[in-house]
Design a protein that fits this description.
By secondary structure, this protein is of the alpha/beta class. Helices cover about 40% and strands about 15% of the residues. The chain has a seven-stranded mixed β-sheet, sandwiched between helices.
Length: about 400
């Protein structure tokens, strides 16, 4: 491979500038969009390489803290890529092995520079017990796939449209496809409303939400509305209340329902679940509550690796306390004998099993079904879901 040393040096300088301007106060993807708009002299190849470098750099997480910036980026390129001009220029001996397996390359770096996978991800001793730590950490060096959920009745249309254009995809089941991350779904306007972008693990949570027609349910932390869309696609006759702390979120949710050609939930409320919910809901009770609580998002850091370096034990405790507070306010609106679907996109026991144990101890719930959904085995996010029955 011929190396253009000037181009490689320019790509590294672009990376340095982008990294030095990032203050961690917003998602990296949003920051890069703004950075590229402010640096219009950068061509498409410059933008692509800057994004690649900065994401790969963050994928090493807390490892190699004492390495200089160039060395750490080279090692990140070695682990995450099968070919790298930067690596070939500065570490040609390593570059010879770039096409080897991830396992080989990590073991190679461990022997050469003492790279320890246990240093990459924070608070490993707090992970849910069922997480296989080494496999989970290693998954962060591979970009997750893009998953779509196909609406019922549109399976053939969506898959055939992609095949006609020669798009490679994996069919995980008739309604779920995996596509390469970064695939431009907007280039297929005729498929709008026929599918939803939704991670594989998130799609699997529908098995926890068994409901009957004419029941009254509450999606208490609706956020972008992905689970409400999935729920009503399967249970269209359920009377669903959706709520969120932000009015803008509910407006965006209505837009998503319009695009999906589904009737928006008739009942929508702006609710701060850290406050007494009876001031707005009174004594209203539901046949089921979906509670996808605010969390660390640690099961999704393969997509947002910039979060790895920012997290701390204090933040974990704050999330756990918040989740218990929200759950305590919500469960009073659940009928006896009915299910609470408690969910997070976290892999930490403090936010998962420990909150479930709190609900059991304080409110008399029993576990009907509980699982840490191991997305890291499928190039997907990892999630936690529990179906809990209120017994008193």
């Amino acid at each position: 491979m011929a190396i253009n040393e000037k181009r490689v040096a320019q790509h590294f300088r672009n990376f340095e500038r982008a990294l030095s301007g990032y203050n961690y106060n917003e998602p990296l993807s949003r920051y890069l969009t703004r950075f590229f708009k402010e640096n219009k002299q950068m061509g498409s190849s410059d933008r692509k390489m800057t994004s690649r470098f900065i994401y790969n750099y963050f994928r090493l997480g807390n490892a190699l803290k004492d390495a200089n910036l160039l060395d750490k980026l080279c090692f990140a390129e070695y682990v995450c890529e099968v070919e790298s001009s930067l690596l070939a220029l500065h570490y040609p001996g390593l570059a010879e092995f770039s096409s080897e397996s991830l396992e080989y390359k990590l073991n190679h770096l461990q022997s050469k520079i003492n790279l320890d996978w246990k240093e990459v991800f924070p608070l490993l001793d707090h992970l849910s017990e069922s997480v296989e730590k080494e496999s989970f950490v290693r998954s962060h060096f591979v970009q997750p796939d893009l998953f779509i959920r196909i609406k019922r009745g549109n399976e053939l249309l969506v898959s055939s449209s992609l095949k006609e254009k020669g798009i490679a995809f994996k069919e995980l089941n008739p309604n779920t496809l995996a596509l390469p991350n970064g695939f431009r779904l907007q280039d297929f306007p005729k498929l709008e409303g026929k599918h939803e972008v939704q991670d594989l693990s998130s799609q699997k949570t529908i098995s926890f939400m068994e409901a009957s027609s004419a029941e009254k349910w509450w999606d208490a932390c609706a956020a972008s509305g992905g689970k409400a869309l999935m729920f009503l696609d399967k249970y269209p006759k359920v009377d669903l209340l959706v709520s969120d702390i932000r009015l803008s979120i509910l407006r965006n949710l209505n837009d998503r329902f319009d695009k999906a050609k589904l009737a928006s939930p008739k009942r929508q409320k702006v609710l701060d679940l850290t406050l007494d919910t009876t001031t707005i809901l009174g004594k209203e009770e539901f046949d089921g509550i979906i509670l996808d609580v605010p969390c660390s998002g640690s099961g999704t850091w393969g997509r947002t690796p910039e979060m790895i370096q920012q997290f701390s034990k204090q933040k974990l405790q704050e999330f756990s306390d918040l989740q218990k507070k929200i759950a305590s306010n919500v469960v009073k609106h659940l009928k006896i004998g009915k299910p609470l679907i408690y969910m997070t996109c976290s892999v930490y026991a403090d936010e998962n099993e420990q909150v479930v144990n709190y609900l059991i101890d304080q409110f008399g719930f029993k576990i009907e079904k509980m699982e840490l959904i191991k997305g890291y085995e499928n190039k997907a996010d990892s999630m936690f879901a529990a179906r809990l029955i209120r017994m008193r």
